[in-house]
Design goal:
By secondary structure, the chain is of the alpha/beta class. It has seven helices and 22 strands.
């Protein structure tokens, strides 16, 4: 993206350019799907989502940006809309200038004006940019400079909520061909300014990468984490209640049953079984290896059905981010530790069939994907960007 003078930027903005399949021009007041309403006011502390309750699901909107914005409205992902979204991404083309701040601000407007899906659990913006902002402030009369516009966008990201949910803004940034050494501080400031601060959900929302292999990895990592956040896999275990203070281990990867074979496991849940004052079984000091769960280190039985104790582990996941499903528990076995003999013994009274169940509960998300379509990428990398963005959609989708 070459440095455009103000006059040239204004001239370019009047030129008719392509409109990819399914896109809308940003300032068409007659288009009901318009997402580019001059970026709204870039306001502060309001809550969005005034359209009423929508069916549960994963909702995604897309903005491609260069000298103007090309928007695909936020839609609920299903077989048809997933393909339409990928077709829209395929249809994007490169152009001059980079309305980075304006695109992010418009995506915030689109989220705020969208209805709130049932069971909304996550609201996210995912930005990809390869350079600096060019001309955003000319698109919004509230601001006299790009610095003012960026500050307003940062405040919106940090302060606004959609319904009761805060906005998580992720940014993948790679320096474009026109980013000189003296531009790097501004480039880094942009990445931070259009991203959320680290929190309990993500150690960082900024992915400053140096290669397109890393771009692909960042898209996949973000999509997998958003998919995981949107899905609650619950594993129900129904073992015979052991004696209090017995250490038990449930292995997922062992098919043999000899004593101490449990020690070879790289994928297990382990804890000490006790009973509380109400006679309900509790697994304490729970450890997870190769799997994750949001249930934590103390798991209380949801039901005592003598002689069985029924436990539910919520938010189950595999450490490698693959889907936690019935295949994961195909070889689940229980082991009890005999302290006197210093040995793990297989419990033949427990079988996974009929005593283990996976239930997947899916919650709703609102996600905006903002893609830099400026010329500094070059055709080859721009084709890769579109491929990686379509992969992002595939990973993001849920059942």
């Amino acid at each position: 993206m070459k440095k455009f003078t103000k006059a040239l930027a204004a001239l370019m903005l009047t030129v008719a350019v392509f409109c990819a399949a399914g896109c809308t021009k940003p300032d068409d007041p007659n288009d009901p799907n318009n997402g580019g309403n001059n970026g709204g006011n870039g306001g502060g502390n309001g809550s969005g989502g005034n359209g009423g309750s929508l069916p549960a699901g994963m909702y995604l909107g897309v903005i491609g940006f260069n000298q103007q914005l090309y928007t695909r409205p936020i839609t609920r992902l299903d077989a048809a809309t997933i393909q339409q979204t990928k077709d829209f991404i395929d249809g994007l083309e490169m152009g001059g200038a980079t309305l980075l701040y304006h695109a992010v601000n418009t995506s915030l407007d689109m989220l705020a004006s969208n209805g709130i899906p049932q069971d909304l659990i996550n609201v996210s913006i995912v930005n990809f940019t390869d350079g600096l902002d060019e001309g955003s402030y000319t698109m919004n009369t509230n601001y006299n400079s790009g610095t003012e516009y960026l500050q307003a966008v940062t405040q919106r990201i940090r302060n606004e909520k959609i319904g009761t949910k805060k906005i998580g803004a992720h940014t993948i940034g790679i320096q474009g061909n026109d980013v000189e050494s003296y531009d790097i501080p501004v480039f880094l400031n942009n990445l931070n300014g259009i991203s959320s601060l680290p929190d309990e959900d993500f150690d960082t929302y900024v992915h400053n990468v140096t290669s397109f292999d890393e771009v692909r990895e960042a898209f996949r990592e973000i999509a997998e984490k958003l998919h995981e956040k949107n899905t609650n896999a619950i594993m129900t275990l129904r073992p015979p209640a052991p004696d209090p203070n017995t250490r038990v281990r449930f292995t997922f990867d062992i098919t043999t049953v000899e004593p101490n074979d449990a020690l070879q496991s790289q994928k297990y849940i382990e804890g000490v079984y006790i009973t509380n004052s109400n006679g309900v079984g509790v697994l304490t000091n729970v450890q997870y290896r190769g799997v994750t769960s949001t249930s934590g280190t103390t798991v209380t039985a949801v039901e005592m059905n003598p002689p069985f104790a029924v436990f539910e582990f919520e938010g189950m996941g595999n450490a490698d981010n693959s889907e936690f499903n019935n295949q994961t528990i195909a070889h689940l076995q229980e082991w009890k530790y005999n302290a006197n003999a210093n040995v793990w013994r297989h419990n033949t009274e427990f079988t996974s069939s009929g005593n283990t169940e996976i239930t997947n509960n899916y919650y709703s998300s609102l996600v905006m994907l903002n893609l830099d379509c400026s010329q500094s990428l070059g055709q080859d990398k721009f084709r890769l960007l579109k491929t990686y963005a379509k992969e992002f959609v595939d990973v993001l989708k849920t059942n």
